[in-house]
Design brief:
This protein has helices at 2-17, 30-44, 51-58, 60-73, 100-122, 134-148. It has a domain at 1-74. The chain is mainly α and 149 residues long. Pfam families: GST_C_6 (PF17171).
């Protein structure tokens, strides 16, 4: 019942939008922001059950609506959201990001550097240089004497 209601809602939104750029003409309104905030994640997220996502992708005007808003207001992330149907019927990814492993490694390295930087700056970890010579040897000798007592 829930999926049927959601499909009906998407169909009604598609009918209301028609061929317009936004729901109330050529400029966005608060309804556009609300609708986009619900549709964009549905288009971009990988869902375990993609029935609703496939229905949304079949409504080309809603798909183009999200793509145009992404390219207008989020140009760094406005990639193609509604690719043509892939020949893969299993719903798996046809193409995998060729730089996925490199990006994962860079993410880990940046996180590690950030944590180490925080540890040094907050004083959790500090580096002390010991002198080479009699002063360094005296300190060791004093510690050994304390242990013997």
């Amino acid at each position: 019942q829930l999926y049927r209601d959601a499909r009906e809602c998407l169909t009604l939104l598609s009918q209301r939008l028609g061929a317009q750029k936004f729901f109330f003409g050529d400029s966005p309104a608060s309804l556009d922001a609300f609708v986009f905030s619900r549709l964009a994640p549905l288009l971009k997220a990988k869902l375990p059950n993609g029935k609703l996502q496939q229905h949304l992708k079949s409504l080309k005007n809603l798909c183009n609506y999200c793509t145009s808003i992404l390219s207008l207001y989020f140009p760094w992330d406005g990639g193609e959201m509604c690719p043509p149907p892939s020949p893969c019927a299993d719903g798996g990814e046809a193409e995998e990001d060729p730089h996925k492993r490199r990006n994962q490694l860079l993410s880990v390295l940046v996180g590690l550097v950030a944590m180490l930087g925080y540890a040094f700056l907050s004083g959790i970890v500090s580096i002390q240089r010991g002198g080479v010579g009699p002063a360094g040897r005296q300190q060791i000798a004093l510690e050994e004497e304390e242990e013997e007592e």
